[in-house]
Amino acid sequence: MKILSFVLLLVVDVNLPTQDHDIENAYNSGRWDENLLIIDGLIRGAGSPQNKKYLAELYVLKARQYWAKTSHQNFPKDSALLALKQAEALCEGLGLKAVESDILQLFGQLMYRDAFENGLFDRARAFFRRAFILRESLANPMLTSQSLFYIGLTFEQVDNPDSASYFYKIAYTLASEHGFKVEQSDAARHLGGLAQSRKHSDEARAFYQESLLLRQEARYFIGVPYAMITLADLIATESPLQADSLYRLAIQVAERNRVWRAQINALIALGELSRTECQTAVPLFTEAANLSRKIEYKSGEKRANSGLLHCDK
Asked: Whose CA, among 54, 164, 280, 283, lies 20 to 30 Å from 98?
């Protein structure tokens, strides 16, 4: 396997001067706070409150930054919800289908996150379906693919792999046909997960490698560590040295791009890989536990403490 033949752009200085600021590139490299400062300035400078469409788009963009912080840094969801409600109020009665679809999608993503605690994946799915209908009517294949992928996620989480696979495959095909690498990589990674659950290791490896390569090519840095972790998890038993290298790269990329949850998961996975050598594992588990406490990531702290307890025996 030439797992590590992928070339990662890990040492690129992605900090851009303000006058050349690119919101999407900043988003993909975890610079959400930077984006929020700029977006808030644009909202203040928007002028007439009658310019509702522009303001609604800005509030959706603001909500998206907060969603990323919630997803990757365990930031409270309240700020994202507030921005979405402000966008929703501005859109009322204007027939702004594109903006409305983005609001529905982001509401669904917040509900999907909550569903891991309350089990209401069907509630999130209802929002994704509504977003999908609007996006399909607008002939926006990139965002349509995104909604289809999230519908698949809700089925995967309730142990319905056939339905999950169905939606992942449609999302994958749509994204690949139009060259949307991030959306294709998301679907590929989860198709790999379904293949792995069926013990189809070669198929899973191919999907995981594809997902990682697509994210590198798209400079989707916040997604790269997750793709590395899933690939490393798959090969850990047969190729522990390569898995070790992938976990360490994932930690570096996650830290550089402020993806704290991925950093924690990679630290724990590396600690578990090194569990027979507690002198190596304990510092990894300790760092993961400390970072988990800092961002109140309870499941990460629980896993890290479990690793520490194992080494204490």
From this structure: 164
Q: At 144, is the secondary structure helix, strand, or coil?
A: helix
Last residue of a domain, one of 222, 238, 256: 222
Six-digit token pair at 164? Answer: 């999950």
- Give yes or no: residues 152 and 52 share one domain: no
Whole-number Å distance between alpha carbons of 172 and 105: 18
φ and ψ at 236, to 5 degrees? -60, -40
Is the distance from CB of 59 to CB of 84 less than 8 angstroms? yes
pLDDT tens, position by position, 122-135: 999 999 999 999 99
- Cα 8 to Cα 218: distance, rounded to the nearest angstrom: 11
Q: Cβ distance 42 to 68 under 8 Å? A: no
Neighbours of 96 (CB within 10 A): 18
In terms of domains, do 105 and 87 share one? no
What's the rounded Cα separation, in Å, for the pair 261 and 272?
A: 17
141: CB partners within 8 A, 6+ apart: 174, 175, 177, 178, 180
Parent domain of 231: 224-313
Q: Alpha-carbon distance 245 to 179, whole Å?
A: 30
Domain assignment present for 191: yes
Average the pLDDT over 96-103 and give the result: 96
Of 76, 83, 113, the C-alpha closest to 99 is 83
pLDDT tens per residue across span 228-271: 999 999 999 999 999 999 999 999 999 999 999 999 999 999 99
Q: What is the pTM of this model?
A: 0.91
Q: Which residues contact 13 (CB under 8 A, 6 or more apart)?
A: none
Question: CA-CA distance, 142 to 145, in Å (whole number)?
Answer: 5
Nearest Cα neighbor of 69 from 227, 258, 287 is 258
